[in-house]
Amino acid sequence: MLFKKNSSTQKEKSHYLSAKESREIAKQNARTIRALEKRKKRVASEEEYTTQMRDEKNIVEFDNLHTYFFGDAGVVKAVDGVSFDIPKGATVGVVGESGCGKSVTSLSLMQLVQGPRGQIVEGSIRFNMGDKAFDIAKIPLADMRKIRGEEIAMIFQEPMTSLNPVFKIGYQMDEMVLLHTPNCSKEQAKARSLEMLELVGIAAPERVYGCYPHELSGGMRQRVMIAIALSCNPRLIIADEPTTALDVTIQAQILDLLRDIKDKIDGSIMLITHDLGVIAEMADYVVVMYAGRVIERGTTKEIFENPLHPYTIGLQKSKPVVRRKVERLYNIPGQVPNPIDMPNYCYFKDRCHKCIGKCNGEYPKFIQVSPTHSVACYLYEQAKEEEKNV
Ligand SMILES: Nc1ncnc2c1ncn2[C@@H]1O[C@H](COP(=O)(O)OP(=O)(O)OP(=O)(O)O)[C@@H](O)[C@H]1O
Ligand SMILES: [Mg+2]
Question: pTM for this one?
């Protein structure tokens, strides 16, 4: 197969990988993957992956996370140095355009990145277990099973593909309870499943308990997914575009439900969405991602009232607003750079209309604008320096 390469790295005029280059990439990938898989399958003592939270008030701390996919055409740096925190009891919204690495970040937290090609290669994900903290990036697969589902639950975007079509809802719900609750009888599991179905607002839990997934509506299926995710009282719920497949009224109901339940179980939510409206309504903090990196993070108020990064400003401008008349909605010109061959300067520079000379230099570091607001853009470094000199 032939693949296009970025002109900045090519030695000759050719835009394609030669068979020899392809073989070399495959060989190198196989070597790296083997080493990383071996590390995941090792038997490790708890001390090896026990760590300390930077701040005990956080439930999760992503610290310089790198998750790559080792493909035939090169390495896709899907997550390329992501750092942000999820405070206890808070909802953190993650936004960014398609393909920027939102899902891969959340899958890394669950250790569900599609292996063997997808691997966490660097960084840590500290998870607060209450009396101790684990580094999820270092936990072997066997030990991760205790955390997944029990401590962290995930609600996927498309409930039809997450529910098994050949098993009844009741069976799938009981399985989750039985797996994670020691000494639980079948009757207790059923009672718990029915209780959860009622909690998520299903009117006839007994009937739904005996149904197959295809017998339910999309909204009901999403409620069942939420019920399954919550049945073990997780500390953290990851909701990856939980309402994208639903119509607006059901969307609002599901969001209300998530909010209610979060308060009931006193958990935290990592909410991934394209929809800025959903973020504004649900989130306490917002993380804006672009091409595998976080480019801005802050409280929802800060991001909506004072967006700083030109990309965040562009995102806000491209959102329709009731009673604001525009000929055409704004769109950010250009495209996300090729993930196999990212530039060594700011990834947004080629689409940015505000770039300055410094933007040709190395990727900008985070600049702290307020205790909760930071942005990775040279424009604000300059502003800060000017502030200091006054
Ligand atoms: N299994 C995979 N194999 C190879 N590359 C992958 C795989 N999964 C994701 N990627 C790549 O990782 C990058 C990030 O993908 P991701 O699914 O995290 O995007 P996203 O931000 O969730 O987008 P969306 O909003 O469309 O869901 C993309 O470039 C994608 O092509
Ligand atoms: Mg996604």
Answer: 0.87
C-alpha 327 – ligand 1 centre gap (Å) = 33
Owner of token pair 């390495």:
75
Answer yes or no: is the C-beta of 137 below 6 A from any ligand 1 atom.
Answer: no
Distance 338 CA to ligand 1 centre (A): 13
Query: 118 CB less than 6 Å from ligand 1?
Result: yes
Instruction: Provide the residue type at 36 as one letter.
Output: L
* Residue in the structure block whose two tokens are 């300055």: 356
Ligand 2 centre distance from Cα of residue 94 (Å): 10
How high is the mean pLDDT in each 10-residue block of the chain (390 residues)? 47 65 86 90 88 93 94 88 94 91 93 89 93 92 84 79 89 89 88 88 90 89 86 87 76 83 85 87 93 94 93 83 69 78 87 87 91 92 68
Query: Which one of the ligands is nearest to 288 CA?
Result: 1
For residue 174, the tally of other CB atoms under 10 A from its CB is 22
Q: Distance between CA atoms of 152 and 86, rounded to whole angstroms? A: 13
Nearest to 108 by CA among 82, 72, 85: 82
Question: How far apart, in whole angstroms, are the C-alpha atoms of residue 348 and residue 310?
Answer: 9
Whether residue 116 has a cis bond before it, omega within 30° of 0? yes
Q: Which of 154, 359, 305 is nearest to 237 (CA)?
A: 154
Selection from 210, 56, 246, 71 nearest residue 133 by Cα: 56
Q: Does the Cβ of 101 fall within 6 Å of ligand 1?
A: yes
Please give the Cα distance from 138 to 44 (Å, whole number): 9
